[in-house]
Amino acid sequence: MTVNVNYDIDLNLPAEDYIKEIITKILPNGPKLIMSALSKVDSINKDNLSLSAQVRRGELNYALGYLEALGFVGTIKQGKAVLCTLTPLGKKVYDKFAQDFEISEEE
After folding, report:
1. Concatenated DSSP letters for 9-67?
2. SS3 64
């Protein structure tokens, strides 16, 4: 997974524009696939999320780290299981920018 380390964002942008810039220009494909998969369920364990999002299990925790840091994804303990879910912010962001989470064939 490659991250553009030279990318700069204008912090004077409105929050909506700032979030769109993060989604379209900074987030790798893994987190985008995870957001799409989580948008279809209330909560899901990591093994099923990996299958649903088509993200390798080894890459999943790394990708979830991006989304948790942004406040888009959270975890819930249910017994021994840890479930992933979109936060209220994550749901709003996905609803607003769903098309920006889609992965094109070239990517």
Report:
1. --TTS-HHHHHHHIIIII--HHHHHHHHHHTTSS-EEHHHHHHHHT--HHHHHHHHHHH
2. helix
Lowest pLDDT segment from 10-14, 16-20, 33-37: 10-14
The 10 Å Cβ neighbour count of residue 9 is 12
Per-residue pLDDT reduced to its tens digit, 24-44: 988 999 999 999 999 999 999
Q: Indicate the pTM of the whole model.
A: 0.85
Q: What DSSP character marks residue 42? A: S
Please answer whether residues 100 and 89 qualify as being in contact, where contact means their C-beta atoms are separated by less than 8 angstroms.
no
